Amino acid sequence: MPQTRTTRLVSTVFAGLATIAVAGPATAQNLTIGAILELSGRFVSFGAHCQRGLDMAAKTFGDKVAGLKYEYAYRDVQSEARGVISAFGELGGTRHLNYVIGPTASPVVAAAIPPWQQSKPLWLVPGASSLDVENLAGQEPMFFHTYPYAYHYHKSMAAALRRALGPGKKIAVLYSDDAYGRSHMPAIEKYYIEAGFEIIVRESVRTNSPDMTPVITRTAHSKPDILLGVMQTTDSIALAKQIRTLRVKIPYLVGMAATQLQEWQAAVGEAQEGWLGVSTYLPGTEDWPADKTYPKLLPSTKDWEAKFDADYHAAPDYDDITCYANAAMLLLAIQQAGADDKEKVADALRRLDVMTPMGRGHFEPSEGTRQQAFADLLIFQRQHGKSVILYPPEAATGKLVPVE
C-alpha cells in the first residue's frame, strides 16, 4: 500500500480495575502523565487494551524522558461521566498534570471536555468518533485527536459500498439514542446520499435495550438493501444476535468500529458473518516500515506485532496499537522539548512526523479539528471468521458478498 496514506513511562504496571493510585504530585525529578481510561464498565474493552499499549510503550522507551523519571497516573473512570469528571478534576485541577491520555469512548470523552477545559493539560484522545467532541474541543490548541471522526467513517464506507454495489441501493439506519448515535446522523445524511443511496429508514434504538425486536421487524418490512447499525459494542452485539435470531433477510449489514473487536466477534459468534466494519488497523494486514530515526521505539508493524504477541500472548487490536503510538509520540515530543513544559511539548508534537507501526504519525487539520492524526480507515467484511479488506482498493484482500 502506498505510504501516502496516514493510517494508524518506566511506568508501574497496574492490573486492578478499581481506581488506581500512583505516586504523588510531580516534582523537579519526576514527571507524571495522566492515563484516564475505561478500565471497568461497558467500555472496558477499549480502556484495557489502551492500557496495554501505554505500558508497552513505556517498557520500550525506558524509564526517563528529557532527563526525568516518569510514570503514568492511571484512573479508572468505570465508563461513566461522573468518573471522568472526578479524574480530570483531580489530575488536572488538583495535581496540575501537564499531559493526559484517554479516555476513548465517545460518551466518556464528551463528558470529559468541561472538566478538562478548567485546566487544559495537553490532551491526547485515542478514540471518540462523535462530532460533539469535535464541535466542543476541536479548535483547542491543547487537544490532539488520534482517531477518525464520524465523517471519516461514513465517507469511507459510502465510497466502499458505492464501488462494490453502484448507486441506487436503499439504506436503513438504526442508531443509538445517545451522543454517539445522534452525532453520526449528519455524516450519514451527507455521504450516503452523495454516493447515490436512498435512506428509507431512520430509527433510534434505546441504549442498552435488551430487546430490539420491534425496530428490527419494522426495518425488515421496509426491505432495505443495506442496514447501518450505528451503536457501540454492547448494543452492536445485541443487534447482530437479534438479527440472526429473527432470520432477517437484509443483504448487507454494516457495523461501526465494534465489528473489529475480538470481544464483539466472540460474543456474536456465527452472527458475525457478512458484517462490515471500519478500522484504522487490522492485525496481520499491513506492514509499515520502521521509523528511520527511532526504529527501536517505532519498529515495523510486523516486528511490533511479534513483540506484542511475545508480551501478551494475544493478537493486538486497534486500541493497543493506537495507544502505543500515542504514548510513543508524546514521549518523543517531551524528549525533543527537553523539559516538562506543555507549551514546548505541544509545539514539538505538532512538528513531529514519524512512521509508527500503524502508519504515519503526524498531526494535520481535519474538517473541524486543528490537530488530527491517524484518520484513514480500512473497510472490511467478516467472511468465514476472518476480516477481508474491501477498501481502499489498493489494500483490498477480497470482494463484498451478501449475507447468506
Characterization of the model:
With 404 residues, the chain is α/β, with parallel strands linked by helices. It folds into two domains: 30-148 and 283-362, Response regulator (Rossmann fold, 3-Layer(aba) Sandwich); 151-279 and 378-395, Rossmann fold (3-Layer(aba) Sandwich), CATH 3.40.50.2300. The protein is 39% helix and 19% strand. The chain is built from twelve helices and 15 strands. α11 (318-337) packs across α12.
The biggest beta sheet is recorded as: 7 strands, mixed
Estimated structural class? alpha/beta
Overall tally of structural domains: 2
Instruction: Quote the distance from N terminus to C terminus.
Output: 31 Å
Unreliable spans are: 1-27
| Helix/strand order, N-terminal first | EHEEHEHEHEHEHEHEHEHEHHHEEEE
Strand content: 15-25%
- The CATH architecture of the largest domain: 3-Layer(aba) Sandwich
Mean pLDDT: 91
Instruction: Count helical runs.
Output: 12
Looking at this structure, what is the CATH superfamily of the largest domain?
Response regulator
**Relative helix content:** 25-40%
Entry summary:
Helices cover about 40% and strands about 20% of the residues.
